[in-house]
Design brief:
Order of helices and strands: HEHHEHEHEEHEHEHEEHHHEEHHHEEEH
CATH topology of the largest domain: Aspartate Aminotransferase, domain 2
Structural class: alpha/beta
Number of domains: 2
Distance between the termini: 53 Å
Radius of gyration: 22 Å
Largest sheet: 8 strands, mixed
Helix content: 40-55%
Strand order of the largest sheet: 2-9-8-7-6-3-4-5
Number of strands: 14
Strand content: 5-15%
CATH architecture of the largest domain: 3-Layer(aba) Sandwich
CATH class of the largest domain: Alpha Beta
Number of helices: 15
Shape: globular
Length: about 425
């Protein structure tokens, strides 16, 4: 073409969680039975949405209101309901005007970074969640700037690393965190969150916290929302119903904005997000209308507690099996529903390739040739056992390993997955 039409940040858009699916689908066509452990979709892994939640959603389809537009920022009653929930926790107080709905958090993330000034960077954790790290990198045209999560300290943020990077890089305008964390399953206690907010306060930054899994906390994790510790610092919490109901196909997420009017520049940025949303008119109506009915139901707390206990048991079950393998380290997750399997760097560089069918081996030869060491291991694991995981290098990390979910609902099948993984890793790394 006579003009280059490709966006400067296009080469930063990577989502390994989904990219590996294309490879896995091709292998299925070759006759390989694939077990998808790459993506956090509870429905795909057999979880049934509670009948009473389904009944509420079904009843809404009979209400003509659910077929119309909402206000651009979201349904008024739903936003007021959510604001009251925030205020009831104590901490920063908001109104319904401080909540903006999107078609899932992917839409929210894309909008936030698309309208952030290109020179303004947001530093995030490593390992990172690909949607957030890729969106931030793409908006700037450079690699995502990260601070370390420390596996020796239960994946807590390395606050000294964060402080130094913020102090010596004045392009950093915001701090991003994920709590509970994806992919590590870490849950940050209040004192850690307070220290991160204090760094933002002292360096005049804003804070973004992805709270997708805020109500999936277990194994001794201490749940703490950003609103409790944000003080007077400008901040954004990202929330969703995808993993809680769970209803990932509902594509319904929202931003909770804190201290919008305390900083004129931050206020202008939030108004830009609202103006951009107006170009789309609004987000999908029906999922929004369900929120006060589902979350306000007395059965919802029991629903959340039950799911947390299920994932707690599965986390223990997996860690007990995988931590026995020489060269493997797994920290016990305390939130979300993922497990990060770390592999000794020397062992991953020289892992023993497991046998694969000839056509599978031939198909994987090219992508494995160019891949990071842990990605080579993951592809060999996929080709030999059919288990599809995500390499840690795909999470903006230089620590080798992979992420696997805790979502398989069939107890027998899930135990077989852990056994197959343990046997395969023992053979690969022994």
């Amino acid at each position: 073409m006579r003009r280059n039409i490709v966006w400067e940040g296009a080469d930063q858009l990577h989502y390994e969680i989904r990219e590996i699916v294309g490879t896995a689908r091709k292998l299925e066509e070759m006759g390989l039975d694939v077990i998808y452990e790459n993506i956090g979709d509870p429905i795909q892994k057999g979880e049934e949405v509670a009948p009473w939640i389904r009944d509420i959603i079904t009843s809404l389809t009979a209400d003509s209101k659910s077929y119309g537009y909402t206000a651009t920022e979201g349904d008024y009653e739903t936003r007021d309901f959510l604001a009251k929930h925030v205020n009831d926790r104590g901490g920063c107080q908001i109104t319904g005007d401080d909540i903006i709905f999107f078609n899932g958090l992917g839409d929210a993330v894309s909008t936030v970074f698309a309208f952030l000034k290109r020179e303004a960077r947001v530093i995030g954790p490593s390992p990172a969640y690909s949607t957030l790290s890729s969106a931030e990198a793409a908006h700037s045209g450079y690699n995502h700037t990260t601070y370390k999560l420390d596996p020796e300290n239960n994946w807590m943020p390395d606050l000294e690393d964060l402080e130094n990077k913020v102090r010596y890089n004045d392009s950093i305008a915001g701090i991003l965190l994920i709590n509970p964390d994806n992919p590590t399953g870490a849950v940050y206690p209040p004192e850690v969150l307070e220290q991160m907010v204090d760094i933002a306060r002292r360096h005049d930054l804003f804070v973004i916290c992805d709270e997708t899994y805020a109500h999936i906390v277990y194994n001794g994790g201490i749940p703490c929302h950003l609103s409790k510790v944000i003080g007077e610092v400008p901040g954004i919490a990202m929330r969703s119903i995808s993993k809680e109901y769970p209803w990932p196909g509902g594509r319904c997420g929202w931003l909770e904005v804190f201290n919008r009017h305390r900083d004129a520049n931050f206020d202008s940025f939030i108004q830009t997000l609202v103006n951009a949303k107006r170009l789309e008119v609004c987000s999908t109506t029906l999922p929004q209308l369900s929120i006060p009915l589902v979350m306000g139901d007395p059965r919802y707390r029991e629903h959340l507690d039950h799911r947390a206990s299920v994932f707690a048991a599965r986390a223990v079950e997996a860690v007990e099996r995988l931590n026995k393998i020489p060269g493997v380290r797994v920290n016990l997750p305390r939130g979300a529903f993922y497990l990060t399997v770390l592999i000794d760097p020397d062992r991953v560089e020289s892992f023993k390739h497991l046998p694969m069918k000839k056509d599978v081996e031939k198909f994987l030869a090219e992508p494995m040739k160019k891949a990071a060491p842990d990605k080579k291991l993951v592809y060999n694991l996929l080709g030999s056992t059919g288990i599809c995981t995500v390499p840690l290098s795909g999470f903006c990390s230089d620590l080798p390993g992979f992420r696997v979910t805790l979502l398989e609902n069939d107890d027998e099948k899930r135990l077989q997955i852990w056994k197959t993984l343990a046997d395969a890793l023992t053979a690969m790394l022994g």
